[in-house]
Amino acid sequence: MDKLIAFSNKTEGRDKFCKVVQYGSRMLKAMLAHPGTKERLQGLFAASRDARKIFRLWKSVHEYDSMVKLLQNAGLDNTQRALQFLSRLAFFFYWLFDNLAILSQIKFIKRNTPKLTKSAMTCWFIALVFTLINLLRNLAINLSRDAKFKLPSTDQNAATTKQTLDALKGARSQIYINLVKTLGDMIPAASGAQVPMKILGKNFSEKWIGFGGLVSALISCYQAWP
């Protein structure tokens, strides 16, 4: 399994780049007025979207491996383990439905493509909700520890306290970045799952969907850059 995961991980860089192209072209298409340009951007959006779906075949294997490792990780508290496990489980079904949708779209299997796509987007949205809850919980713990170490105490070593506060600050920066990335992804995920339609009676505009996905894609590229 490790060899399969290492092999399929080689597509991650291409996937992140195509995500930038996918959502960037989607946002531009909504902002520009020229019909010819809009048509070309639509073609670029569709091509990059479908290419990413091909790259993501077998991603469910990654999630299965992640869930197994989570259950074996003794360094996590029960709440953190549960939130991460539920997020990975939802991502498992997201990749599964996403894979079936593209296989149906290219006529490899005969299934209802729109229904599979909506199921995939719903699972993606649920996974992001659990991810968001976990990030907010980690942020609250981080801020609590930061406040505790900033309290004056004769028992604290100044050098050790500074190292701890620096580490907490670094971890907090990563949490903030991941929060922005998660919120960005939640816009297209919620739209695909039709959450705004059910709550507000209308979906997000193409411009906002493109913007949210583009922000998340750019952050992912930054994090994946060697």
TrEMBL record:
InterPro entries per record: PEX11
Listed GO biological process terms: peroxisome fission
Sorted UniProt keywords: Membrane, Peroxisome, Peroxisome biogenesis, Transmembrane, Transmembrane helix
Segments traversing the membrane: 89-109, 121-140
Chief location category: membrane
Record-level GO cellular component terms: peroxisomal membrane
Superkingdom to which the source organism belongs: Eukaryota
Pfam families per UniProt: PEX11 (PF05648)
UniProt KW Transport keyword: no
Keyword Transmembrane assigned: yes
Subcellular locations according to the entry: Peroxisome membrane
Protein name from the UniProt record: Uncharacterized protein
Lineage: Eukaryota, Sar, Alveolata, Ciliophora, Postciliodesmatophora
